[in-house]
Design goal:
Blueprint (H helix, E strand, L loop, with lengths): L17 E5 L5 E8 L2 E5 L6 H11 L4 E3 L13 E3 L31 E4 L10 E4 L6 E8 L2 E5 L6 H10 L5 E3 L12 E4 L31 E4 L10 E4 L6 E8 L2 E5 L6 H10 L5 E3 L13 E3 L31 E4 L10 E4 L6 E8 L2 E5 L6 H10 L5 E5 L10 E4 L31 E4 L3
Parallel strand pairs: 3-5, 9-11, 15-17, 21-23
Antiparallel strand pairs: 1-2, 2-3, 2-6, 4-6, 7-8, 8-9, 8-12, 10-12, 13-14, 14-15, 14-18, 16-18, 19-20, 20-21, 20-24, 22-24
């Protein structure tokens, strides 16, 4: 008889005997199948997109995007049910494919197979948040692990990592990836370190990083993210050049990937106000004309700029068309804003001098301050250091440990700046810690500021 055949009403099609575990949503993760009421994994021998296609179809998760091997979504426990799967890709369920008998395998859980489907499921904003900022789209990054919130160390933290956080929270694109606990220090665990996202991941937990809780950081290194939906904007299209700090100088605007100056016809405090606001530099103090901060080179992009003073950026103001003017660089416009923007004690400092703008040069590397050897030390190097510490132009570049000998490492030697670098770390030098010096050769500078 044919009594052993199931009639359709005996088959419960709603109960999937398959699931994806450990992924960002129900349509990606480690494959587990149910057999004899026990869930078990699938070995990745022969595992490829054809098997993944069947799993995605079976779960109603669209098409297969990838078929990761080697326990990408963590190692399962207990049973490994299936091995050497051979699907055509057209089967309705994984159990219709050829495979070794249930439980007959020489695999271990390092080889657990996974699937990533196109799905329509967006990962929940889930176990991540930004705290200490003005709103939920800017602040210190915190992640939830083992029911405890913890921060992320800023080693290797950059815009790609922040981009993943912003997207995961539905906060638009990343604008800034501040380091150094910009939004305050976390209180509890530091969960992640050496996070290295490409920027396309759906969640921070998908990015390469050290294991949970494994780090060499302290909360002063907590990473943050500022997303576009926070309302905080940072201009990449205007800059101030040749001034004592980033909030004063000759105005330059970016157009077609080329920086150019602004002609001072009609230039006054209203335009300056817009530039200062755009750069996050407070209010305008003055709007100098006639290339006070030096003549620019190349293009003069804007002329007859006419702002009301309320615009969010200079390009919103009335002006002649880009590049249409009869000005020359003697007429380059400048701006001086209220916020001097003293750089935080960054990775360079002047110590043991008469004031903060003169002393022995020390740089921070691997969380240790060290000195700089005076071989090749000259005014071009001093120029970069003085600017970097917010002390204006250099008066002298001294050697021979004029302001005392450093107590610890000698980090840099044979430093050769051309004078235009933003930071001494951008200058040519020997590799960190490699030198032929002693502390009697420590380099010093005296800058004009005080």
């Amino acid at each position: 008889t044919l009594g052993c055949l199931l009639s359709p009403e005996d088959v419960d099609t709603t109960k999937h005997e398959i699931r994806l575990v450990g992924g960002p949503n129900r349509c990606s993760g480690r494959v587990e199948v149910l057999h004899k009421d026990v869930w078990g994994t699938v070995c990745d021998d022969q595992w490829d997109l054809r098997e993944a296609k069947v799993v995605c179809r079976q779960l109603g998760c669209g098409t297969a995007v990838s078929a990761p091997r080697e326990s990408k979504y963590g190692e399962g426990k207990d049973q490994i049910w299936l091995s050497d799967m051979k699907c055509k890709g057209t089967e309705a369920s994984l159990t219709e494919c050829e495979a070794k008998p249930w439980g007959d395998t020489t695999c271990n859980h390092v080889e657990d197979a996974s699937v990533e489907c196109s799905g329509t499921e967006v990962p929940e904003p889930g176990p991540i948040r930004l705290v200490g900022g003005p709103n939920r789209c800017a602040g210190r990054v915190e992640v939830l692990h083992e029911e405890q919130w913890g921060s992320v160390c800023h080693d290797n933290w950059d815009l790609n990592d922040a981009q993943v956080v912003c997207k995961q929270l539905g906060c638009g694109d990343a604008v800034l990836a501040p380091i150094g606990a910009k939004f305050g220090r976390g209180f509890d665990t530091i969960w992640l370190d050496d996070v290295n996202c490409t920027g396309v991941e759906a969640a921070l937990s998908e990015c390469p990083a050290r294991p949970w809780g494994d780090h060499n950081c302290y909360h002063g290194e907590d990473a943050s993210a500022v997303c576009s939906d926070s309302g905080i904007t940072v201009s990449t299209s205007v800059r101030l050049v040749g001034g004592p700090n980033r909030c004063s100088g000759r105005v330059e605007v970016l157009h077609k990937d080329v920086w150019g100056t602004v002609c001072d016809d009609q230039w006054d405090l209203r335009e300056a106000k817009v530039v200062c606001r755009q750069l996050g530099c407070g209010t305008a103090v003055s709007a100098p004309r006639e290339s006070k901060y030096g003549e620019g080179k190349g293009q003069i992009w804007l002329s007859d700029v006419n702002c009301t003073g309320t615009e969010a950026s200079l390009t919103e103001c009335e002006t002649k068309p880009w590049g249409d003017n009869i000005c020359n660089h003697v007429e380059d416009a400048s701006v001086e804003c209220s916020e001097v923007d003293i750089p935080e004690e960054g990775p360079v400092r002047l110590v043991d001098g008469p004031n903060k703008c003169a002393g022995r040069v020390e740089v921070l590397h691997e969380n240790r301050w060290g000195s700089v050897c005076d071989d090749h030390w000259d005014m071009k190097d001093a120029k970069v250091v003085c600017k970097q510490v917010g002390c204006g132009s250099p008066l002298s570049a001294l050697g021979g440990a004029r302001y005392g000998r450093g107590p610890d490492m000698i980090w840099l030697d044979d430093v050769e700046c051309n004078g235009t670098e933003e930071s001494i770390f951008d200058c040519q030098a020997r590799p960190w810690g490699e030198h032929n010096c002693y502390h009697g050769e420590d380099a010093d500078v005296v800058c004009a500021g005080n």
